[in-house]
Amino acid sequence: MSSERTVLATVIPCLRYRDASRAVEWLCAAFGFTRHAFYTNPDGTVAHAQLAFDNSMIMIGSVDNSSEWGKLIRQPDEIGGAETQSAYIVVPNADVVYAQAKSSGAEILIDIKDEDYGGRGFTCRDPEGHIWNFGTYNPW
User: Fold this and answer.
1) Which stretch of DSSP H or E encloses residue 27?
2) Rounded Cα distance, 119 and 55, in Å
């Protein structure tokens, strides 16, 4: 057996949620993420969760304005519902993810459409205001 390991995603977005446990469940149900790891703090909040999507991953944690990193992050509701960054997730069938997200209560911000540059996709907002983009366009 080789000691080398397969490297999947090397850029992993990190997001904070006020109710991170609920967010993990919602992201799995609405977008098709799968739980890879889940660790709680003594008070029951999420210390760290890893959600996989194909060969990619996101990391989720509870809002903690007392930590060094937490002091650098603001939630969308603290900045007028805006985001300063968002993730784009390549999917094989954007219509399937769109229907799943919509039925789970995602707010559709940009309706599903074919893009001039190729691919088909949409943009939505999750229950805590984070913006997500899904599409079939794969820049690789």
Assistant:
1) helix 20-31
2) 19
Are 12 and 57 in contact, with CB atoms under 8 Å apart?
yes
- Integer-rounded Cα Rg, in Å, for the chain is 16
- The correct answer on CATH 3.10.180.10 for the domain covering 14-64+86-135 is yes
CB burial of 75-98 (b: ≥16 within 10 Å; e: otherwise) equals: bbeeeeeeeeeebebbbeebeebb
What does the block give as tokens for 136? 């079939």
Residues pairing with 135 in the sheet? 90, 121
Alpha-carbon span 99 to 94, nearest angstrom: 9
* Coil, strand or helix at 95: helix
Residue type, 62: S
Domain map (residue ranges) of the chain? 14-64+86-135
Is residue 61 within 8 Å of 73, Cβ to Cβ? Answer: no
pTM: predicted TM-score of the whole model, two decimal places: 0.88
Query: Residues 39-69: pLDDT tens digits?
Result: 999 999 999 999 999 889 999 999 999 989 8
Choose among 124, 44, 42: nearest CA to 87: 124
CA distance 125 to 135: 15
